[in-house]
Amino acid sequence: MRSLDARDEKERLRAKREDEKRRRDATITQQGLDKVFDGNWHGNAGQFLLRWYTHSTHHQRLLLATQDGIVLAAPPRRVSVGREKHMEIVARLPTTEATLIDPFSGELETRMLLIRFQDGSWLRVETEDLRSDLHMYALRQSLPDN
Fold first, then answer.
1. How far apart are CA 91 and CA 63, in angstroms?
2. What is the pTM of this model?
3. Residue 47 contacts by C-beta under 8 Å, 6 or more apart in sequence?
4. Is the pLDDT score of 146 beyond 60?
5. Of 17, 19, 66, 115, whose CB has the highest number of CB atoms within 10 Å?
6. In Å, how far from its chain's centre is CA 73?
7. If you ran DSSP here, which 8-state letter would residue 128 be given?
8. Helical (H) or strand (E) element with 55
9. Is 114 in contact with 77 (CB distance < 8 Å)?
10. Which residue has the higher pLDDT, 115 or 52?
11. Do residues 54 and 38 touch, judged by C-beta distance below 8 A?
12. CA 23 to CA 76: how far, in whole Å?
């Protein structure tokens, strides 16, 4: 339908999208969320990150959120053909240790989620989709009655 909009309307929508992206990027930078983790190597997130590659050197992880916590799976090797078929569980983080959160509580549409550890340290993860099922899970978990 947008292809039928007038040029002025298309320009207005493009400017609005660019403004939202600038605002989102500025907020991310301002809150320090443009980094992989909070920067404290002695915190739980830093220690977890140091162990991250001892399980698998592959850069991608499959993250699964459950009622009991967070499960991370990865291929056993850096280069793996059909890696989805060969994923192995490399870490389990019970809810007593870490939770999955949307750092913007759904206000900004991003691919970013945080694994927030009990000591307040965090590790940033990126989803493949905006507003993924993981985002919806994190938002449901943060509701007051949960």
1. 10
2. 0.76
3. 41
4. no
5. 115
6. 15
7. S
8. helix 44-55
9. no
10. 115
11. no
12. 39
